[in-house]
Every structure is written in C-alpha cells, then in structure tokens.
C-alpha cells in the first residue's frame, strides 16, 4: 500500500494523469456510457496497479472517472475490483 501511495505522488504519474484527463475531455467514461456528461475527477487503472505494475503508465489501461464511478470500480472492503471494474478489463481487451 505504501508503494502505491508513493506512486500517486510521482510527477511522471501526475503528468500522465493530466494527459489522460485531456484525452477523455475531462469527462467520466462510465457516465458517458449512459449518455451523461460528468466531470472526471480521477484516473483509474483498469487493471489494478498491484496486478500489472508494468501497465501503470499505459494509456490503454487508464480511464477518466468521476469519484462516484471510481468508487463503484473498487470494493473497498477487500481491495478487489467489483463486477463493474472487471467489466472494464473485458471492455478494454475487446477494444484492442
Ligand atoms: Zn461517472
């Protein structure tokens, strides 16, 4: 967990994060699926950082989300992805 927190303070990540937000026009990708235009607040690793650290800067593995949707991707009780989070992995792989 400590390593993960450190990662989010990495200037390289900060720059990447901005690039992804710009790419997604600062809109939440999950809300967009329902035709809602909601400002994104965070950039989510589709395949979690601890599972695939090699994909941490991979744009294909990153999506912009609002806080509400981001909370829906992670089960905070066990730190695992929710069904919705898993869905995004399949969606990302299908797009390739
Ligand atoms: Zn959203």
Radius of gyration: 13 Å
**Helix residue percentage:** 40-55%
> Can you give the mean pLDDT?
94
How much of the sequence lies in strands comes to 5-15%
| Global geometry | globular
Q: Kindly, what is the distance between the CA atoms of the first and last residues, rounded to a whole number of angstroms?
A: 30 Å
Strand order of the largest sheet: 1-2
Please tell me the total number of domains: 1
Sheet with most strands: 2 strands, antiparallel
Order of helices and strands: HHHEEHEEH
Walkthrough of the structure:
The structure is a single chain. The chain has 96 residues and is of the alpha+beta class. It has one domain (2-95). It has five helices and four strands. It has helices at 2-7, 11-23, 29-33, 67-73, 83-95, and strands at 42-45, 62-65, 74-75, 80-81. The strands form two sheets. The chain has a two-stranded antiparallel ribbon with strand order 1-2. A two-stranded antiparallel ribbon has the order 3-4. The chain starts with a helix and ends with a helix. Zinc ion binds next to helix 3 and helix 4.
Describe this structure in a few short sentences.
The chain starts with a helix and ends with a helix.
Secondary structure layout plus pairing:
Layout: H1 2-7, H2 11-23, H3 29-33, E1 42-45, E2 62-65, H4 67-73, E3 74-75, E4 80-81, H5 83-95
Antiparallel strand pairs: 1-2, 3-4
This protein binds zinc ion (ZN).
Zinc ion binds at residues 28, 30-31, 38, 65-66, 68-69.
């Amino acid at each position: 967990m400590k390593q993960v927190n450190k990662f989010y303070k990495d200037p390289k990540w900060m720059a990447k994060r901005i690039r992804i937000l710009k790419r997604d026009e600062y809109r939440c990708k999950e809300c967009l699926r329902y035709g809602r235009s909601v400002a994104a607040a965070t950039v989510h690793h589709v395949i979690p950082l601890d599972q695939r650290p090699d994909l941490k800067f991979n744009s294909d593995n990153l999506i912009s989300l609002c806080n509400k949707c981001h909370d829906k991707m992670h089960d905070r009780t066990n730190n695992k992805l929710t069904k919705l989070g898993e869905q995004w992995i399949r969606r990302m792989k299908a797009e390739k």
